[in-house]
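Following the same procedure, backbone shapes were mapped to integers, yielding the entry below.
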Amino acid sequence: MARNVVVTGGGTGIGYEVARRFAEAGERVVIVGRRRAVLERAAADLGPNVTPLVCDLADPDAVEDALNALPAEIDVLVNNAGSRETVIGAGPHAVLARWRGDFERNVLTVVLLTESLRDRLTQGSGRVVTVSSIAALRGAGSYGAAKASLHAWNHFLAAQLGASGITANIVAPGTVSGTEFFGPRLDEAEVSRRAARTLLGRIGESGEVAAAVYFLASAEAGFITGEILHCNGGELLGR
């Protein structure tokens, strides 16, 4: 039987690849994000099983409005939406904007939706998979701190959902290609530098992270919860 799957940030990069995996398996997928044109283009590419839903996930009013468009029962929730605040500067106003922006973009976008959908998660088999980052383990200032917050929250969520047979896990990618995160910074020299930090001598691909997400959402992963699956080619260990 087809499952109902919600993927945030599903219009590009890792989220797009996650949505593709589920859609190709015959699941019903809703991709959520802020940019209508991006979502509609992705949904058209991915096929009739995929529905776009425009929502600013850091805005509680927008999340509340979006609930009516989401399935009454959700088998899989993939929290992938997130980005890095680009405010620069050392003054207190710049610091506040950067830290607040990273918290809103990477924590509130996850927590507001998940808490709003908790009662819709399928009892006995529901899955929550949240995409974090290697930055949560290596630092990276306000962005890393925001992603690390998701790790603590996920432990709390897993404990709350466990009695209902619902799992909650994290996938923490390292450097991957095919995303908008790095923009023009990920040039050939930067790819080589980052690849050299891994044990495999290369950066990852969005589809490889999507495969990890797909596994944690599967029936085979039903006894895994509260965990962080590192998907970084050994970059966390370094050479």
The mean pLDDT is 92. The beta strands are 4-8, 28-33, 50-54, 76-79, 127-131, 167-173, 176-177, 204-205, 228-231.
